[in-house]
Amino acid sequence: MSAAAEERSARAPWALTAPALMLFVGVLLIPLAMTVMLSFHDWGQYKGIEPVFILKNWHEIATDPYYAEMFWRTFRIAILTTFLTAVLGAPEAYILNRMSGRWKSFFLLIILGPLLISVVARTLGWALLFGGNNGLVNKLLMSLGAIRSPIPFMFTETGMVIALAHVMMPFMVLSVWAALQRLDPQIENAAMSLGASPATIIRRIIMPQIMPGVLSGAIIVFSLSASAFATPAIIGGRRLKVAATLAYDEFLNTLNWPLGAAVATLLLVALVLIVVGSNSLIERRYAEVFR
Amino acid sequence: MAYLELDRVAKQFGAQTVVDDFSLSVGKGEFISFLGPSGCGKTTTLQMIAGFLDPTRGAIRLEGKDLTAIHPAKRGLGIVFQSYALFPHMTAAENVAFGLEMRNVPRNERAERVRAALAMVGLAGYEDRHPRRMSGGQQQRVALARALVIKPSVLLLDEPLSNLDAKLREEMQIELRQIQRTIGTTTILVTHDQNEAMSLSDRIVVMSQGKIEQIGTPQETYEKPASAFVSQFLGKTNDFAGTIDRTVAPTQLVAGSWRAPAPAGLGGPVTVSVRPERIGFGDTGLSAKIIARIFQGNHWLFQCDSECGPAIVIRQNDGQAQPAEGDAVRLTWRPEDMSVRARADA
């Protein structure tokens, strides 16, 4: 091959990926960089945004316990949601995987169905079910005798976690489902023939093998829950803010764009660090299962 | 008394009968193969012995005790699966140790037995490897060690060699046979490979469409096939249409211009089966023309067009001159080399 041809073939991948690359840079990297820059700008009630470089917003976030509380709440809700989806979603996927053909596709549709409906519509549905002290859920629980006085769901973290867990469940189920597909169909019989009880089979054979699926599902659910907007906005309202709703309010209610940008940037950086960190941890821990 | 006994076992899935009227006595230490094409019910039968499926009818007994009443986890059988079904998150040693752990074998003894089992299958030094980092043959050995380390009453092998390449398969066959001889475990092998069944087993159970076609030693099933299916399935064979002629005394078996004294107990139209390597070229016999002569190293393969239809002849390459393509020949064989069955279609 001549030097010119070699050079041309070296350029070809760049040329071929250029359209997608430009889109990526144009709609993701540039706005992101602008947001980061914005977070260092100044803002005042009467002077608006001033394009200067100051650390005022970052200083405020770092020192005012209001923001710390907000971020702790965000991650607390995300962790609880992740935990709930893992505890319910993993067995759900396992049971689903054991069902026979027709039932399997029917229940898969039920689990994935919510993905086809807008998050806002689904969350409003939960708001109707929770609906204050006389909500359907409270009435049901009280008539069953499970609780004596109504549980406040609306505008509480409990309500937010439940609604978010429902919204996020398909991601967990799909992720565990994918891990289950990699399982040898005879593996449970193999363990049984060696004398393992059903509980032992689940604990010693199935769980370790679907754990990577649970964990990658957990990463998806965690990052989506931590940055979720619609569900916290509807269930939590203006009273119980999380990072995403806080950034929204700074942008659109207070009009303090630089502060909102700082909140958004911090959320992004924290999420990226958590996701990348846990991902590499998982990959190292489960190297043999992933291979 | 039979060690493992299957008594008129049948399995139905809905209206479909997959295994029907399966009766077999296996002696202690015997190596039995279930041989048949896919869908003949051999794996289903194995799974009923293992306990993964319950028979619809019939009984399975081990040393006189009803095996179907025992939970699969308590049967104490060793099973090697076609896919090996190793636990990918455990090392080879952990895989082998699993069955011992379930039996609460103390740690020291467990380590000792795991080491011995891995050494027996030629995997000493591979204790800490994970299955995905081992070759197919090595995984197969781990699976075998895992099944044998629990000292099973019966070893069940479900097409264990079918995922290996031809050369490795042959090696594993020899090794499997040696291991089985050494430890004397009663073994049942499911296979669709007639060579595997013949080279490994004491007895072969030939199955077709859920039914037993024949039970016999490899030699019996090969040389005295009980049905057309068996003779076709086990190696190449020539089927010639013949008749028993009762108008002459003594009665004669006639196939084209080949004739011999008729075997007792048969009359009318019959099928004469002869293995290709038992046919020779002679001065009398079935007249035929050689269509193709194929050299295959240690033997010659002749495709002939005989007066009773196409025929295959295999002759040892013993340095003798062989007929050429287009030659007219006479095919002949000794009466003891053929098997004669009443012809169903007549």
From TrEMBL, chain A:
Keywords: Cell membrane, Membrane, Transmembrane, Transmembrane helix, Transport. Signal peptide: none annotated. One of its GO terms (biological process) is transmembrane transport. Pfam families: BPD_transp_1. Coiled coil: none annotated. It is found in: Cell membrane. It is a multi-pass membrane protein. GO terms for cellular component: plasma membrane. InterPro entries: MetI-like, MetI-like_sf. Belongs to the binding-protein-dependent transport system permease family. CysTW subfamily. This is Putative spermidine/putrescine transport system permease protein.
UniProtKB/TrEMBL annotation, chain B:
GO terms for cellular component: ATP-binding cassette (ABC) transporter complex. Keywords: ATP-binding, Nucleotide-binding, Transport. Residues 4-234 form the ABC transporter domain. One of its GO terms (biological process) is quaternary ammonium group transport. One of its GO terms (molecular function) is ATP binding. Belongs to the ABC transporter superfamily. Involved in beta-(1-->2)glucan export. Transmembrane domains (TMD) form a pore in the inner membrane and the ATP-binding domain (NBD) is responsible for energy generation. This is Putative spermidine/putrescine transport system ATP-binding protein. It comes from Bradyrhizobium huanghuaihaiense.
